[in-house]
Design goal:
The structure is a homodimer. By secondary structure, chain A is α+β, with helices and mostly antiparallel strands. Chain A has 19 helices and 12 strands.
Chain lengths: 619, 619
């Protein structure tokens, strides 16, 4: 069965998204409009994205010193996406949007991520940049930069990292100075001249659109020639590749944002990844203001106030991270579907019982082998569990934005807590799913004639970008579980207890409710133990194993909640095979995966100091 | 520290290889000759292999319809290896060999596998083929085919799989018929005409040598036009690409072995992988005998008796599997060394304690972060543990071949038991090590500018070839633990008990001895539970989780045994940093890895039927 079926089930039967249409913002919507937008997305993804996923890998972006060349398919696909109005799906009608709930936006994006995550990269970054400008920009900035991004004319990037500063953004060295005495009088916002190098910039240069709107983190240099050290000194700027007037029309002037070169990647090759130099004088723009005497610097417009750059940027991070997790999930789903198809059609071997002894009997589809089923069930449990997590978190975004105010506060806190999991868990386990998909294909899976090796390569990025695993584990154990004296964790505990209460009405789920309750209790106790004494460095020693355990508990909880709904539908004579499959994937997760939690938490509970105790010279 | 140091420690301090020189076969050797051969190997690997490892990946083999093109570096490297006499390192003096113990042969091969596993592929296959001919061929066959392989003139392949028969060799369709009435009178062995397609043939075509000696599994067609079904019908043939006379001189005749095309792989790209057609008439050879009326068939010489093909081929499999495991191990070591170097030099972030709060303080090497140490320690524990396993198994090969006859029988049984682990465990965990090496590099690790992504791609093959994971798990639980009423498992238990007894003399190891004893007891009990009732299909339901647990117990045992020796050396004032590192890797393994065993064995102990219970329609 394809993922669409599961997506519909999770949206309708589990999350009951049609109830969102009772909210004023979504009042024009209905179950039918939700379905229609999924249908359109599925079709465009199938026709414009999926057929070219291998092509954009083999015909990697190239750079001739000036221009970046991409396959025509990338242009056609991103254009079809924009022309369907999907870039502004979640935005206000006033901005040309559809005012779709965020959970539906995530749902529609799933098709594109599964069809070709690398082609989708251009759109994902543009949408994220536009949303940031809409949320924090002035009306002029929205009109001049965000609107053309939403309607398809412009594209965007996020410029955070630098060659010497990846995970530690407080160490960025890009600087900005006011652009002349009238710098504060520009319609487009306080105008600066910006200089510095930005690394790992996806979609940093291409000809897919008239313009590229870079959102750049930089430090404002004070009159004393110094910058504020650390994160507090970081501000956020809009740096358009081509300058625009207050109405968003191109002035014909090229800004000083120059590509230096491409990063050649393991996977995700269709999304060009660049090193950019801002303000180094390759494209001198307007009258030089004498910045360092080496050219003018790139023209940049401040968003928000000086020093608020990280805050502004991270405002969008919950959503960006849900989408990174979703991307990992959908790569997992793509591999699951490919390997399921292969397992159903590839004939090899015979049953291991007595009936398999006859060598003249025809070979059987490999799906009949227990170990192939193991690998399929594991993929199903990982990918559908991860999809449930992505959708659940997206639903929390809607609760936070449009829900009952009292509940919205809880939703916001729970979302904060679950975001590191929504990003990291699919990145780790749907990558493992892709490895299992290769394994099912045997030697064929190791060739580029089948799609699964590419999924595996593409997916490996997701544990690295938008915050590496280690960073998220520190966010989770160092900050999220402690927020408001542990209230987020308590809210999670309450939701787990509610699932357990409902699930216990079904005899078939009682064993699992006990296992989940025990696992969550262990997790709570490990949390407390880690923080005994309150020393942050000690507490975070084992943050990654802690996060792995946390993730498995969360996914077990969601699987139990999905199973609870599944059992109800079974009683209402739904599609038996589909529903039994859900229950079986849940069963796999509880029997084969949840028991791992103890092994991860053991060192946490023992406050194990193996890592801090290791001397650098001993390696 | 480099792996050489660890290799020397494991060989000398742990396995005490110099005692082997008391055996007649190795009497000419000494600690000095052992060291000398390692030194030569390390140098050739460093000079001729390592510098070209990326090159053979990017300049992938190409095929113009007739010839396969490889980089010059591959020719130079394989030639340097052969010219140093290393191909025959383990063979008799009479064959031009060095009569090195197998453990030393494995040790010397480790350098090449780490430097460039793909360049090494040609040599590995040639050596395996030559060894098989030496073990099972006639004197004429040895002289004509094996000698030139050992001295560097010829190369070889192993042709087992077919497009429709990968893991299930009993279903191969390649056939052979006697070549004329005088077929039994050829000096080179009973001569047949052979037809069929062979898939996944590494080194199947190239110009690296005068000749390629294919070892081919095929079924002899009887006078009734039929073949014996199943594995019993399989025979083993020598099929030279160029025909030779009884002295191994080329006759100038091309045999009918034709390359159809290349497989384009995820990794391991430097080793060309081909689909070969035998006897399809592309190169008709000598007078056609009318085989099917479609050309003559390829000329093939039977090795051993008809129907003994699988037995003959698998005779070499223990050694081949140790070397596949070693290859996975050395890729892991390569990634460990690269990421250790990166972690020591890359500056990023500050300590998480109070001293890290000052953003103006310089950034610190990332090796100071606890989570980076976690990833380094995990790699160290996986890779050095796997290396210990490879060497231990190689040492068992020597025990079996040249040891005291009573002990040799035990060694042979233990080797049988450990072989599936020696192949599968490094394939799984040193791949995970490579993923951690990428993670330590962050975004840089995801680029092709650093070597780690290639190691990860290369290593992914090792869970697939030479028997996929699932096959080995069935071999382990279905056959090996039950051999001679469980005597192999009992021997392993005895060796573990002996390690525990010795380790308990050191207070610092007592906690680990308890953990290991408990884990092994759980494993024994899981073995018995799986086989309750004696139904093979039921027993093997959870064979992969069983094998994963088995592997972790074995590695824990070897780490404890290495640690025991380490503690002794510490008392003798050895290199403290080196020795502490060993103990710390052992500590990591016992605290973070061994606890996983319970989670894997739980479904085995519960005889969980989740996989067999899953209906195909439910996926």
């Amino acid at each position: 069965m394809t993922m669409r079926r599961t997506l519909d089930f999770l949206l309708n039967d589990w999350l009951d998204v049609s109830t969102l249409t009772t909210r004023p913002r979504f009042a024009d919507h209905s179950a039918e409009t939700f379905t229609a937008v999924l249908d359109v997305s599925e079709r465009i993804a199938r026709e414009k994205f999926a057929p070219y996923n291998r092509l954009v890998d083999t015909e990697e972006p190239s750079f001739d010193g000036t221009r970046v060349m991409l396959p025509q398919a990338t242009l056609d696909a991103t254009r079809a996406y924009a022309e369907a109005g999907l870039r502004s799906a979640g935005h206000d009608y006033a901005l040309g949007g559809m005012q779709l709930p965020y959970v539906m936006e995530v749902a529609l994006r799933s098709f594109f991520l599964q069809a070709s995550i690398a082609i989708d990269g251009y759109t994902m970054l543009t949408a994220a940049g536009a949303s940031l400008i809409v949320a924090h920009g002035t009306k002029h900035q929205i009109d001049a930069f965000a609107r053309p991004e939403l309607d398809g004319r412009f594209m965007g990037t996020m410029c955070l990292s630098e060659p010497q500063a990846g995970s530690s953004l407080s160490d960025i060295e890009t600087q900005a100075v006011p652009d002349g005495d009238d710098f504060a009088a520009d319609d487009l916002g306080p105008r600066y001249r910006l200089k510095g190098s930005k690394m790992w910039i996806s979609a940093g240069e291409h000809d897919l659109a008239q313009n590229i709107i870079h959102l750049v983190l930089a430090k404002i240099r004070g009159l004393d020639g110094k910058v504020v050290p650390g994160a507090k000194g970081i501000s956020l700027f809009i740096v358009p590749k081509m300058l625009v007037d207050a109405n968003g029309h191109l002035t014909g002037e090229r800004n000083d944002a120059a590509i230096v070169g491409l990063n050649h990647k393991l996977g995700y090759r269709g999304t060009v990844n660049t090193l950019l130099n801002f303000g180094e004088g390759k494209f001198p723009v307007r009258a030089p203001s004498g910045f360092d005497g080496r050219g003018a610097g790139a023209i940049a417009y401040l968003i928000g106030k000086p020093g608020e750059g990280l805050q502004r940027m991270f405002h969008m991070m919950n959503e960006a991270r849900i989408q990174v997790g979703l991307g990992a999930t959908m790569l997992g789903c793509a591999g699951y579907e490919a390997s399921l198809d292969y397992a159903q059609t590839r004939l090899q071997g015979r049953p291991s019982g007595p009936e398999g002894k006859d060598p003249t009997a025809p070979q059987r589809p490999i799906i009949e082998h227990a170990d192939v089923r193991r690998m399929l069930l594991a993929q199903k449990a990982y990918c559908e569990g991860a999809l449930a997590l992505s959708l659940y978190c997206a639903r929390l975004v809607d609760e936070k934005a449009t829900g009952d105010p009292v509940l919205a506060a809880d939703a916001a806190l729970l979302l904060e807590l679950l975001t590191p999991i929504a990003k990291s868990w699919p990145s780790e386990w749907c990558l493992e799913a892709n490895s299992l998909a290769i394994q099912i294909h045997g030697g064929y899976g190791y060739t580029r004639d089948f799609p699964v090796e590419q999924y595996w390569r593409d997916n490996r990025l997701n544990m690295i970008h938008e915050g590496a695993h280690g960073i998220h584990s520190q966010d989770l154990l160092g900050r999220k579980v402690r927020m408001e004296e542990g209230r987020a964790l308590a809210i999670l505990g309450g939701r787990i207890a509610e699932t357990v209460r409902l699930a216990r009405q079904h005899d078939v789920l009682i064993r699992d409710t006990d296992a989940l309750t025990t696992a969550f209790a262990t997790l709570q106790s490990a949390t407390a133990t880690a923080w005994e004494g309150g020393d942050r460095e000690v507490a975070l020693r084992n943050s990654v194993p802690y996060m792995q355990a946390f993730g498995h508990v969360v996914i077990a909880w969601l699987w139990l909640d999905v199973a609870r709904v599944t059992v109800e539908r079974l009683g209402q004579s739904g599609d038996i095979a589909f529903l039994r499959g859900k229950l079986h994937a849940k069963r796999y997760f509880f029997r084969y995966e949840l028991p791992r939690v103890d092994a991860w938490l053991k060192p946490v509970c023992e406050r194990d100091d193996t890592f801090s105790d290791m001397d650098t010279a001993w390696f």
